[in-house]
Amino acid sequence: MSHDPDNGPFMVVVVEDESDIANIIAFNLETEGYKVTCVDRGDHGLTIIRREIPDLVILDLMLPGIDGLSVCQQLKSDPMTRDIPIIMVSAKAEDSDIVIGLGLGADDYISKPFSIRELAARAKVALRKSRPARHEVAEGRMVFDELVIDAERHEVTVSGHPASLTVTEFRLLQQFAENPGRALSREQLISQALGKDAAIIDRNIDVHIASLRRKLGKAARLIKTIRGIGYKFTPGRRTTPSATP
Ligand code: CA
Predict the structure, then answer these.
(1) How many A from CA of 169 to the centre of ligand 1?
(2) Surrounding residues of ion ligand 1, Cβ less than 5 A
(3) Which of 12, 96, 142, 188 is deepest in the core (most CB within 10 A)?
(4) Distance 43 CA to ligand 1 centre (A)
(5) How far apart, in whole angstroms, are the C-alpha atoms of residue 30 and residue 11?
């Protein structure tokens, strides 16, 4: 279904200045269980999307403030937002813009007038891509290729060999595992992975990551550095068995 039990409801931002269309989209996606935020200007859309980092953006092309193509371009050129799938919504006359949008990295498009069923189906496909599903073997246990994280026992193995992590390293890895495919800033990692203890922990997160990578051996490739931003966990993309239509 549209609800991902591991990460809460999917968040969708709809950037559309025609309120009737925005309302219909929002109503239908909310019925599917998504959390929907509507914005009626391109510039406001950018602000909200950068702040919320939603799972999906539905983007009209003709917008006040900044047009949809510019919004798309800015989102796709920023490491923090470029992995958020974008479905462009266009009037027929804007078909040439669709081609440009796809070239900029938009994931899909739909032409007005569209059926809401069609849009919901496209949204589902895009969301499946946005949260590469991890393969759960059992409660509290996450498997990414050769890497197995047992949250309950605080155990990590790589190709069956235990990796002995510090509490900080374990929390960082857990944070990565819960956000596959997401760019995480150092600040996010510090506050989300380390929480209340952040104040008393060495803020040089890079040192912890370097040590974590060393201990993960060949699974270290799953943690990618994003220059100037932070890090991203990039396991192989899989589909959840329960997510098939
Ligand atoms: Ca419009």
Answers:
(1) 47
(2) 17, 60, 62
(3) 12
(4) 13
(5) 10
pLDDT along the chain (245 residues), means of 10: 56 95 93 93 96 92 94 91 89 77 87 87 81 51 84 86 88 87 84 62 76 92 88 66 36
| Burial 202-220, CB ≥16 within 10 A → b, else e | eeebeebbeebbebbeebb
Q: What is the pLDDT of residue 42?
A: 97
State whether 117 and 221 are in the same domain: no
CATH number, domain with residue 100: 3.40.50.2300
Do 185 and 103 lie in one domain? The reply is no
Q: What is the pTM of this model?
A: 0.56
List the CATH number of the domain containing 166.
1.10.10.10
Report CA-CA distances (Å) from 98 to 103, 120, 237: 8, 19, 26
Q: What is the pLDDT of residue 130?
A: 63
pLDDT at 3: 46
Which residue range is the domain that position 213 belongs to?
141-233
